[in-house]
Amino acid sequence: MAESDESGNVDLTIDFPGERAEPTHLVVMVNGLIGSAQNWRFAAKQLLKKYPQDLVVHCSKRNHSTQTFDGVDVMGERLAEEVRSVIKRHPSLQKISFVAHSLGGLIARYAVARLYEQESRQELPQNSDDKRSIEEPKGRIAGLEPVFFITSATPHLGSRGHKQVPLFSGSHTLERLATRMSWCLGKTGKHLFLADGDDGKPPLLLRMTICNDIISSAFVNSSALRCFKRRIAYANTSFDHLVGWSTSSIRRRNELPKLQRGPVNEKYPHIVNVETPDTSSNEEEDRPGINSDGVDMEEEMIRELTKMRWERVDVSFRGTLQRFLAHNTIQASVKTKMINSAGADVIQHMVDNFEP
């Protein structure tokens, strides 16, 4: 069943004959640059097919087409407002997850910070075996329990760093030119290329990770992201001409793994590496000073983002005709079997590892 609000946003659920339990888990799917809600329809249907009674899947329509040039902050505010309206329509909801493609991952990160609510600490019973005197604070997103935060080919570190946009073939000249011309993509372009520090503040993407007095206290220590049970980054290892492997998997280039030949599991032929969280990645490190140099800003973002645990799933479409469209193929925004359908196994991997 599809239910729409006055803005045309669509919530997908499954109809059952007779009585059925009300769905308790909201999955918000967010499109990328010049995208639309239609891009996630295939994945939404697969999630509902496996978990028909548990989920409401909402394919966001608030930021589409040229609206995606308006800036990460503007789009994040729109998405946050949209999520609140969806929750009002479904009072049975208890949990929330986000699934986002490309730029949508940055929009979702901004939105969850706006929706973040930190619960007050509560004292443990005196006879508790727990050695802590107080319970760790638990965060909620728009009043719901946060479960999954999943990104697919998202430029978490922006597009300014060396080789972060493979289309430029590692040319420093082209990378510098792209930064100067980032205004061509509107406010969003400036955000992606970390070129928006005109007001004396650090670029927005950097402010979304560091602990400065910025925008909202929710960004401090990336608390909004930390409160999700699982954070998963799907990344193309090659043939993604728009978003590099390093920025989408939140790794330094010298940390990119050597890939084995063939898939990890024959069921998912295009998934070539799965990395579970490394507890050592949560250790605090001394941070370098922030300046206008893109390399230092990139390092700062990596250090902050990797203080929380991420699962990384590396994807390769090498050997398929659709590899040249890898950036969209990973999302399996299937319209015909000839376009982007190779990514269906990546979506199936996400569905199989989802917990309602």
From TrEMBL:
This is DUF676 domain-containing protein. Residues 274-294 are annotated as: Disordered. InterPro entries: AB_hydrolase_fold, DUF676_lipase-like, Lipase-like. It comes from Thlaspi arvense (Field penny-cress). Residues 22-247 form the DUF676 domain.
